[in-house]
Amino acid sequence: MIFDCKMGQNTLEELLDKENIRELVEFERYCRDYEHWDQMRACYHDDATVCTSWTTAKIDDFVEGSKKRAGIPPRHKIFNTLVWLNGNRACAECIAVIQIRCELDGDLVDMTTHTRIHFRLEKRDGVWKILHLGGVYEKDTMHSAYANGSFTTAPEDLAPYRPSYANMMYRQIKYGGHPNPDMIGEDRPETVAAMYAESSEFLGL
After folding, report:
1. Whole-number Å distance between alpha carbons of 205 and 184
2. Which residue from 25, 102, 106, 151 lies 20 to 30 Å from 39 (Cα-Cα)?
3. pLDDT confidence bin for 156, thresholds 50/70/90
4. What are the extents of the domains in the chain?
């Protein structure tokens, strides 16, 4: 399994690979946040795929879809990044929160989603690029940006949605979106286990 990869025992070449991977995935999220679309696209192989709450798509379609959603940009705050390496393949995971400030129900609202952003990467012709982006949703919150704000949600408002990203689903639907109800989340542990099993197979472990 992926968690059996040796950690803290890297050769110099492995350290260089891991640092390149770490910089690449963090830069990709930076480009997404600040709308550097060409630079974001350059982080991916041409056959890459992306799976988020609002789309599952090939990389070019994801970039175009992201451009259309640029009016309410997310901000990915990354706390740390882990890298598992096996030859020319790797997985990386950013422990992060996604922050969005937007207008909702006549108020200014802050939403925070706790997530593990999970990447699969491959080194081709000596260059690391992303082959797949997905992730694990853990929990989220949403509240007015003002101490005396009017926005609130009751348990029954969020009850129809997945516990690991209920607020995100609620907000997307309010904005006319169609969030994927079957994302990987901690409220469905079997989906998390399947993701790590698939990544382990990808790494050849």
Report:
1. 21
2. 102
3. very high
4. 2-203
Q: Are 54 and 169 in contact (CB under 8 A)?
A: no
How sure is the predictor about 23, in pLDDT bands with cuts at 50, 70 and 90?
very high
Please, which pLDDT band fits residue 36 given cuts at 50, 70 and 90? very high
Structure tokens at 130: 């992303």
Is residue 78 within 8 Å of residue 95, measured between CB atoms? Answer: yes
* Contacts of residue 203, Cβ cutoff 8 Å, sequence gap at least 6: 2, 5, 84, 86, 89, 90, 91
Cα 73 from Cα 5, distance rounded (Å): 35
**Backbone conformation region of residue 139, classed left if phi is above 0, alpha if psi is from -120 to 50, else beta:** beta
Question: What's the DSSP call for residue 35?
Answer: T
Average pLDDT over residues 83-104: 96
Q: Look at residues 127, 136, 134 and name the one whose alpha carbon lies nearest to residue 24.
A: 127
In 3-state terms, what secondary structure has residue 112? strand
Given a cut of 90, whether residue 157 has pLDDT beyond it is yes
Amino acid at 89: R
Domain 2-203 has CATH 3.40.50.1980: no
- Residue 47's φ and ψ, nearest 5 degrees, are -100, 20
